[in-house]
Every structure is written in C-alpha cells, then in structure tokens.
Design a protein that fits this description.
three-stranded antiparallel beta sheet, Phosphorylase Kinase, domain 1, 11 strands, alpha+beta, 14% strand, Aminoglycoside 3'-phosphotransferase, Chain: A, domain 2, six-stranded antiparallel beta sheet
Length: 362
C-alpha cells in the first residue's frame, strides 16, 4: 500500500533536512521496501532525498539494521575521503531531527532517509558487457573497502540468509504444508529442486573465510554514472552482513548474465550469456581479486550456480506459501520467477567447464 502524500510530507519533515517539503514520488523497483524521492526547497535551491519505509515483516530489528548501515556507510566515507566524488560513491544517512538513524511514524512504521545521488541511475536488466563489468567492479570495490571493517561483527539482519540447506528445508516445509494448494501446479519445479538437493551445502562445506558482504548484488543495486557509465555507488544495504565473498559474485552472475526479466514467461529467452559472465568475472576480480583467497576464487563458479538455485527455491517456497515474502503484481509471478532461475541454473550447468577455465585464466 502506498503511503498517502500528506503522511509522506510529515514523515519527511521528521528528518534533519533543510528547507521546505515540496513533493514525494515513488522510486525504485525493489521487492521489499517502499522508496520515495522527496524534494525539499531552500531559497534559490532544491535538493532531493531518498525516503524509505523499512519492511518490518522482513527486517524485524530495525535498530540492528540501521546500526549496520551506519557503521558501513561511515567506514566507506572514511575510506573514500579525498575522492573528489566521494559524496556520490557511498550512501549518506540523514539523521532525524532528534539525531536518530530512523523515524517511527504514528502507525509504527520505521523510516530512514539518505542523500539522493544525482546524475546516476540503476538498470533492472543488463544492457551491455560494459554495464556488467562496471557493476561487478563496484561490488568488488565494496567488499574490498569493507574488508578491514573493525570489530564488532555486523548484525545478521536476516539470519542464515544464504544458508542454502536451510532455504531448501523451508521449501520442503512449504511443499508439505501447501497452504495455498499450489504444489500440483509446480510439480516440475519441485522435481528440479530435489534433483539438486545434495548440491545445497557446496559453499558451506568449502570452509571459506567470513567477509562483510552485500548479499543482494543485483544490477539494480549499483548506481551507474549517467555521463561515464561507471559503477558509482552500491545501494540497498539492508542485507550487508557477515557472509562469504563468492555469494556476492554468484548473485552478480545470476542477475547480470541474462537479458531476460526476472519473471520472464518465455523461458527460451533465459540463458547465461558467456560474454556477460566474462565481463562480470573480469570486473569483480579487477577490484576484489587482490584480497580473495585461492579457495574463494576456486568457488566463484560454484557460487554462480548455487545462488541462482537458491533464489529459485526461495521464489518457489514463497509461491507455495501464498506469496507472503516477495511483492507480486499478478497471479503466478513468483512461480515464473522460480522458473527463470531454474532455467538459468540449467544454462550455467551446461557452460560450467568454460566458466571455470575463464576464471582460472584471469
């Protein structure tokens, strides 16, 4: 449900934003939070800010969530200090008028605000190998800059987020419960998932080092500069927490190597395009390669296949549960999302040998 405009004006005024509220318009294409671009005007100047309502159903501890984001953005700002464009290369949290990181409205909703980054935009579907390279390089830089984030350990905003065996167990429970009476519609997808059940622990068994990871490295979570096309700023920091570096690489491959929409119904359009994979691999390793261990590099392709599979079983479980997690705009959308992921898994499996040879050659 979209918040009425008067509420947005009142909520925006709760933040330490100079000037007078002018307008608010929905922005972004995320499945989880509600985002608005709000315009404030001071004498002779107007400035935009990003106002977001945090999804409390998914992020049940907004205090821990915002502590993570404050620590990460502050660390990035310190690392980027001196860069002529530093204010555009990391999100800047705008505090409330009470110097808090988030605002609770009268309905109990939690809100946050960021400085809006101008002259940059996101893309839902990759349009070129240049875009794929730049986005992957930006995510690699993000991991690199946070590799020395001081203790304490970040909070797990969604515990076991990339614990694929537990995700599979959730699917199994959704199949058994079948609360929406949909399992019979998804028999082929259920069979596909169970044929790969033993693969779910591949990364957990690899004994890789824990890193600070983004955990949602979709193309549309990187702002690309309007003028240069450079990967400018990593956004959507809700799932930044401890994780495995290959998880982020795998999600980049999942989201940047196919031209098909996430809910594409014509599965003939869904394929892992090798030139896009090469761009992702080269971009990521150009920035992250210096700190990755040999074991992490050796599991990058495994992660590409695993994360696409994991996302597929998550979409499938949500479909079977009655679409309670991801936003949907039409019947069967989560099942279509599942099908595109599983088709991508099959395409990766067909090209896995060539993918590994490429990564080894970089």
């Amino acid at each position: 449900m979209i918040t009425p405009m008067p509420d947005l004006a009142r909520i925006a005024r709760a933040f330490a934003i100079p000037g007078e509220f002018v307008s608010a318009t929905p922005t972004g294409s995320g499945h989880i939070n509600d985002s608005y671009r709000v315009l404030f005007r001071t004498p002779g100047q107007a400035a935009s800010y990003l106002l977001q309502r945090i999804n409390r159903h998914i992020f049940t501890d907004p205090a821990a969530l915002m502590q993570n984001i404050q620590r990460v953005t502050a660390h990035l700002a310190g690392k980027l200090a001196g860069d002529a464009d530093s204010h555009r290369r990391s999100l800047t949290v705008i505090p409330t008028c009470e110097s808090l990181a988030w605002h609770v409205d009268t309905a109990g909703n939690c809100w946050r605000a960021y400085r809006f980054i101008e002259q940059a935009r996101t893309f839902d579907i990759v349009e070129s190998t240049v875009q794929a390279f730049e986005a992957a390089k930006a995510f690699g830089d993000f991991q690199r800059l946070l590799a020395d984030l001081p203790l304490p350990r970040l909070h797990d905003t969604i515990p076991d987020f990339h614990h694929t065996p537990k995700r599979f167990a959730q699917l199994d429970m959704a199949i058994t419960a079948d609360v929406a009476n949909r399992a019979h519609i998804a028999n082929a997808e259920i069979d596909f998932a169970f044929q790969r059940h033993t693969f779910t622990s591949a990364l957990l068994d690899a004994q890789l080092p824990e890193r600070v990871t983004h955990n949602d490295t979709k193309l549309n979570n990187v702002l690309l500069d309007d003028r240069t096309g450079e990967g400018l700023c990593v956004i959507d920091l809700d799932t930044v927490m401890p994780g495995l570096a290959p998880y982020d690489f795998g999600d980049m491959v999942r989201t940047s190597t196919t031209a098909a929409a996430e809910d594409e119904q014509d599965l003939a359009k869904v394929t892992m395009q090798f030139p896009m994979f090469e761009a992702v691999a080269r971009g990521y390793l150009a920035s992250a390669g210096a700190f990755l261990t040999a074991a992490e590099r050796g599991n990058l392709v495994t992660a590409a296949r695993l994360i696409a599979f994991e996302q597929g079983i998550r979409f499938l479980a949500d479909y079977l549960a009655g679409d309670t997690y991801y936003k949907t705009h039409r019947p069967g959308q989560n099942l279509d999302r599942c099908r595109t992921q599983f088709k991508l898994v099959a395409s990766i499996e067909e090209q896995e040998g060539a993918m590994r040879r490429l990564v080894e050659s970089i």
